[in-house]
Amino acid sequence: MKIGVIMGGISSEREVSLNTGREIANNLDKNKYEVVPIIIDKKEDIIEKTRDIDFAFIALHGKFGEDGIAQAVLETLDIPYSGCSPLASGICMDKSITKSILKTVGVNTADWFTLNSADKLDLARVDAIGYPVVVKPNSGGSSVATAIVNGEKDIEEAVAEALKFDSEVMIEKYIKGEEITCCMMDGILLPVIAIKPKSHFFDYSSKYLDGGADEVIIELESPIREKVEEAARKCWKHLKCSVYARVDIIIGEDDIYVLEINTLPGLTKNSLFPKSAKAYGLDFLEFLDRIVQLSLKSRN
Ligand SMILES: Nc1ncnc2c1ncn2[C@@H]1O[C@H](COP(=O)(O)OP(=O)(O)O)[C@@H](O)[C@H]1O
Ligand SMILES: [Mg+2]
């Protein structure tokens, strides 16, 4: 079987994607698969460069990769691919739509609203949420253009910065607490990882610099454990995830809050998912193999 590892792309997360892609290409089982790296520099490459592959291992992040569009092209070309469907990918790429669905199924998420470049920022709405708030691109990733804003004087600038990366910006209540991530594979929750960034929050550099954050496998205690398990399971089910996805959660003082679901979580050397899979008992090669097998099963 010839596997094309699809990486690069046209989003602000291109560099991260190239790292994820190289890591996947290096670690896929060469005794089982012929592996070819495929670098996407423009959208048409997903058609032009995938002609003779049997399976696409998608290592793209952000727009045209994580949002379901590349997946839909591969569906059209009849090439099986890794991970979530176009529908789940599209929903989860939009943080606000995701949160709306979560609310309707009883999964707790922080108060928020969104605005686009044509809207005037309504400061009264921010006051109603209460500072500090987090400002982020609604369809962003890797914490790009994400800021914690403590008061009115900094909010306009944070919104303008986020608008450079997306036409829609989210303003969300800042939740103080312990950040965790839940790696889900085939609907099963793998060991939970606690994230302790060295900076104020899990920003770009704490995500990708060596030693930028402490990330440790933890055993949650009852009743938080059951709450987290239920929330992660509901996210998986109601956002229609398949194969693998990662749910970001903050354990606040009063409740747990789901931040977002990542349908193409990073798989670089320092990434969270391989760490969790390892604690579950799968080394990176075995984990990648499992992803290929689960994907083939779910595409049939
Ligand atoms: N409402 C919030 N309260 C506290 N921290 C937040 C909040 N929203 C985001 N963060 C911090 O910013 C990081 C990135 O936000 P997230 O919503 O996961 O977007 P992405 O990872 O797609 O960039 C989180 O991992 C967390 O550290
Ligand atoms: Mg996140």
From TrEMBL:
- EC category: ligase
Q: Where is the ATP-grasp domain?
A: 99-293
Give GO terms: molecular function aspect only. Answer: ligase activity
The pathway this protein participates in, as annotated, is: Cell wall biogenesis; peptidoglycan biosynthesis
Q: Which UniProt keywords apply?
A: ATP-binding, Cell shape, Cell wall biogenesis/degradation, Cytoplasm, Ligase, Nucleotide-binding, Peptidoglycan synthesis
Major location (coarse): cytoplasm
Per its record, the protein catalyses: 2 D-alanine + ATP = D-alanyl-D-alanine + ADP + phosphate + H(+)
Question: InterPro entries given for it?
Answer: ATP-grasp, ATP_grasp_subdomain_1, D-Ala_lig_Van_CS, D_ala_D_ala, Dala_Dala_lig_C, Dala_Dala_lig_N, PreATP-grasp_dom_sf
Q: Report the locations given in the UniProt record.
A: Cytoplasm
NCBIfam families linked to this entry: D_ala_D_alaTIGR, PRK01372.1
Q: Which family does it belong to?
A: Belongs to the D-alanine--D-alanine ligase family.
Q: Which HAMAP family match?
A: Dala_Dala_lig
Q: State the name under which the record lists this protein.
A: D-alanine--D-alanine ligase
Protein source organism: Lutispora saccharofermentans
